[in-house]
Structure formats: structure tokens, C-alpha cells
Design goal:
The protein has 525 residues and is of the alpha/beta class. It contains 20 helices and 16 strands. α4 packs parallel to α5 and α5 crosses α6.
């Protein structure tokens, strides 16, 4: 039987979770831990001549920059880097002369197959082991895939990969593609398998591949704790243990656990990865996982609404992430309802009569509830709560712009609900135009309180009091008065939201007088 090799891609695929900023010391520790574990192949990161060199990053303009992290250079370990087609000028790649990194993995989409194979041949001619990695192999017809295999034989790479980019490959599809590869690829070329875990099949598919294997060597890609974009990858520690138990391998598991515990857990706490319903949806529609991440980070959509937006995706736009395109679809979906002009005129008259207090659902709205009630009594306010019923005072209105929040609210409140036109609600008091009241600050473009402030300013309101607008803490439990409103989001997104809210407040405070009734942590007037 052929040899089974583990290729750990934590430093490359895992970099999508932290912008490849692992840190100099951490990169060295990860490589040393993987060497100690016995992983046969370590992927050190991306080779990309378009990026600036950063000693703390695993994206390298030049190959020798990656080699600086490798101190032991174990003879039984191979070291590789990946290049995405289009990120390398072959003339900048030196001829291989017994360097530490001897392998280059070339990833490419179907539309670039001709140019990418030319690059593979040139890399091979320079003495490197070439790993051919056609992305989204399920997009190839059988005829196209067979042609690709025959052309790969002409180059004679070290390895040819079966790549499940979107994590949707079923067992029968894996078997079909494997046998096409096994029967048409030259016998001395390794078959590699790289999968993502959108439908939680990475582990079982990798096991199935080993059951199918013949006499040629097999490479299974994995990453520690599955670290990788979206749903992540096959877990190195899990599959290494599986190979120990079933294939007489002798991987050391403890070094892998230490890497997660001492290094990767920090990144996971800031921006988690792994199976989720939005990543499942992206796999179901066979599209780039960044579409799911983009919609999920909005924190405004239910899974059913995400599903409807995925249905709107054009097939030709699914494989490559296009931020402007998905933003257009999001805005199109969110602006689907009609505006109630007659209620707007009535509400406009109401706004002119009394001072307005907006109560956001931040934790201070609970901790300082007595201060809020005293303010309402002293100023005879019109009270508008945001995205939820305020439990300590019967608000006059409830403003909702978030579909997910709308579905959580008791519909007995409909007669006093003001909703934006992305929400289908024919019994609300008022529907206002969603498109008109979004703002230009990306992370908080359709934040509910900012939309309401923009609406009030457009209707001539000159001053507004605000309570419960705390901003966002990295500690999820510190963000909402009602724990049921907590949504898990990365610290990076929280920071961007705080910046966006502050910028918006600064801008609109030149047009409308704002007063904070409760204390704020991350928002400044």
C-alpha cells in the first residue's frame, strides 16, 4: 500500500482567520510543534510577491523569507508554500538549489487552467516539487477533469489534488473523482485531498479516501483545530489520532494540543471558525464561503433570509467573492417592502411636540434604568426603544430595522412598531424607506439606532436624548441588557462597529443636538 502523509496547512489556510498575523515567535513555535508531531509536510504560508514583507506574517513576497522560521530542518519533513495563480511572476522565483522549502502548491480556478498549468510547468522546471491544486473540482465536467489529468501527467508534478473548496462533496462524488484520478494519473504522482468542513464531511471523506487508496502515496490536508476560512478544515489532531489508531502511524498528539492551547485559542476567541448554518448554506449553493461570512457579519438576517439572498446569486458569480455584488443583493433584498407615506406625515407631526428619548438595548439601559425613568418623567419624552421592547418602561414606539430582531419581538407590539422597508410587516404603525436611511460607514451601515437618528434628522428634529448606546465590548456578556440578544461576533467586527458609530455620531451631531442620558464605554459625543 502507498504511504499516507499529513500536510498541515494551519499557517496558510488558518491565516484567513487572522490575516496571517500569527507573530514571529508563534510561527516558529507552530512549525517546531508540527515537526515534533511527525507531520510529513508543513505548509509555511502563502508565496505572494504583491504583499509587503512582514516578519509577523505568513504571506511572503520571497521564498527565503519563509525559510527563516525553520530552525531544525528535519530530513523526514517536507516544507512547502502555496501560491494562488496570478500572485507570482515566475522570473522572480530562484532555481531550487537544495533549499529548505522544496515544494510549491499552485491553486487556481477553472477559468485560469491553461495559464496555471504553464506556471506549474515552469516551477517544475526550476527544480521544485509542484503540487497541482485545481479549486472547486466539482465545477469540472468529467471530460474537463480527465483532460486536466492528462495535462498534469505531461508536467509530472509531485502531487495532484482533489479539492473540495466549498465543503460540499458527498461520498459518491469523492469516489467518482478519486477513481478518475487513480486510473488516469501517472502511478508515481501523489494524490492529495484538501477539503473544507461546511457540511462536516471532511473527516469521513478523508477516511473514505484512505479506504479507496491503492499503491500510490496519499496526502491528506488538515489544520490544527480545523483552523481555516469559514467552516474550517479537517482537524490535524483528530485525523492524526485516527491514523495512529487505524493505520499504525505514530504521530505525537500533545504538541498539536499545545499549539492550540498556547497560540491558536487566542485567535479563535477573537474570530472563531468552524461549522455554522451560514457556512452550510454557502456549501448548499456551491458558492464562495466569504458570501456567508459577509451576510453573517451583518447580524441583521435570519437563516431563512440568508437563504433567500443565496437564491439571488447568479451562478457565474458564485465561485469568486465579490463584495460589491453581494452588498448590492443585500441592499436589494432589504429594500423590498413599501413605505407608508400617510403614517409618515402623522408621525412627523407627533415628533415636533415633545422631546425624544431613544433607548438602545445596551447594558447601561438596565444598570441605569432609574436614571432613564427620572429623565423621562422630568422631560415628558416620546420614548422610542430600539430592536426590542424596553422592560422597565412602556415605550411609545419600538423601532426595528433588523429582520432577526423583528422575528424575536412579541407581535402584540405591532401597533406601535416603526420598521424599515426590509421587514415585511403589514400591521406595523409605520414603514420607512430602508435604502434612504442607511449610512456610509461599512460596519454599521444599517445599524438601527443610526438609521433612526438619520430619519429623525431628515424630519427636522433638532435634538435627541439617547440611553443604552454603550458601544461594543469584546466580552459578549457585556453588550446587551437582555442576554437573549447576544450574537457571537468577532472582536475585530466589534471594533469596526465602534469606530463606525463614533464617526457617524460625530457627523450627525453637527446637524442634530445629541445628549447621552446613560454612561457610555466605547461611544464618544
Amino acid at each position: 500500500m502507498g504511504k499516507i502523509n499529513l500536510l498541515d496547512c494551519t499557517l496558510r489556510d488558518g491565516g484567513y482567520c487572522n490575516q496571517w498575523k500569527f507573530g514571529w515567535k508563534n510561527i516558529r513555535k507552530i512549525i517546531m510543534g508540527l515537526e515534533e508531531s511527525g507531520a510529513e509536510i508543513i505548509e509555511c504560508g502563502f508565496l505572494n510577491e504583491k504583499v509587503q514583507y512582514d516578519a509577523d506574517s505568513t504571506r511572503f513576497p520571497k521564498l527565503e523569507q519563509a525559510e527563516k522560521f525553520i530552525t531544525q530542518h528535519k530530513r523526514n519533513t517536507k516544507y512547502v508554500c502555496m501560491v494562488n495563480y496570478g500572485d507570482l511572476d515566475i522570473d522572480t522565483l530562484p532555481v531550487y538549489e537544495n533549499g529548505i522549502i522544496d515544494g510549491i502548491r499552485v491553486a487556481f480556478h477553472k477559468e485560469n487552467v491553461n495559464e496555471a498549468l504553464k506556471l506549474c510547468r515552469q516551477i517544475n522546471e526550476r527544480g521544485y516539487k509542484v503540487y497541482i491544486q485545481p479549486m472547486v473540482v466539482l465545477d469540472y465536467t468529467d471530460e474537463e477533469f480527465l483532460s486536466l489529468l492528462h495535462r498534469a501527467n505531461e508536467i509530472h508534478p509531485y502531487a495532484f489534488y482533489i479539492v473540495d473548496s466549498f465543503g460540499i462533496m458527498k461520498k459518491k462524488e469523492l469516489i467518482r473523482i478519486y477513481y478518475m484520478t487513480e486510473h488516469n494519473l501517472d502511478n508515481d504522482i501523489c494524490i492529495g485531498f484538501h477539503s473544507h468542513n461546511n457540511t462536516q464531511l471532511s473527516y469521513s471523506n478523508a477516511q473514505e479516501l484512505l479506504e479507496l487508496r491503492g499503491n500510490r502515496d496519499i496526502i491528506i490536508d488538515c489544520s490544527i483545530f480545523g483552523m481555516g476560512r469559514g467552516a474550517g478544515n479537517l482537524n490535524t489532531e483528530l485525523f492524526a489520532q485516527y491514523l495512529n489508531d487505524n493505520y499504525n502511524k505514530n504521530y505525537a498528539i500533545n504538541p498539536l494540543l499545545i499549539i492550540y492551547d498556547e497560540i491558536l485559542s487566542m485567535f479563535y476567541n477573537k474570530k472563531s471558525w468552524g461549522y455554522s448554518l451560514d457556512n452550510y448554506l454557502s456549501a448548499t449553493y456551491n458558492c464562495h464561503p466569504n458570501y456567508a461570512a459577509f451576510l453573517d457579519e451583518k447580524n441583521t438576517l435570519s437563516i431563512g433570509d440568508m437563504d433567500k439572498i443565496f437564491q439571488m446569486l447568479d451562478n457565474s458569480r458564485k465561485n469568486t467573492f465579490d463584495r460589491n455584488y453581494i452588498e448590492q443583493l443585500y441592499q436589494q433584498y432589504m429594500g423590498q417592502n413599501r413605505v407608508w407615506q400617510e403614517s409618515i406625515e402623522e408621525f412627523k407631526k407627533i415628533l415636533q411636540k415633545r422631546r425624544i428619548l431613544i433607548i438602545a438595548p445596551g447594558k447601561s439601559s438596565s444598570l441605569e434604568k432609574e436614571k432613564i425613568k427620572d429623565y423621562i418623567q422630568a422631560n415628558n419624552c416620546i420614548v422610542i426603544s430600539i430592536n426590542a421592547e424596553y422592560p422597565y418602561y412602556d415605550a411609545d414606539y419600538v423601532f426595528v430595522s433588523n429582520i432577526r430582531r423583528y422575528k424575536q419581538i412579541d407581535k402584540k407590539l405591532l401597533p406601535k412598531m416603526i420598521v424599515t422597508s426590509n421587514i415585511l410587516s403589514d400591521k406595523s404603525y409605520l414603514v420607512i424607506d430602508y435604502d434612504r436611511y442607511v449610512n456610509s460607514y461599512e460596519a454599521v451601515k444599517d445599524n438601527a439606532i443610526l438609521m433612526l437618528l438619520k430619519y429623525l434628522e431628515s424630519e427636522g428634529v433638532k435634538s435627541v436624548a439617547i440611553a443604552g448606546l454603550d458601544g461594543y465590548s469584546h466580552d459578549l456578556n457585556d453588550n446587551y441588557a437582555d442576554e437573549g440578544m447576544i450574537i457571537k461576533t468577532s472582536s475585530e467586527i466589534f471594533d469596526k462597529r465602534n469606530c463606525g458609530i463614533n464617526d457617524f455620531i460625530k457627523e450627525i451631531s453637527s446637524k442634530i443636538q445629541l445628549q447621552f442620558v446613560t454612561s457610555t464605554k466605547y461611544i464618544k459625543l
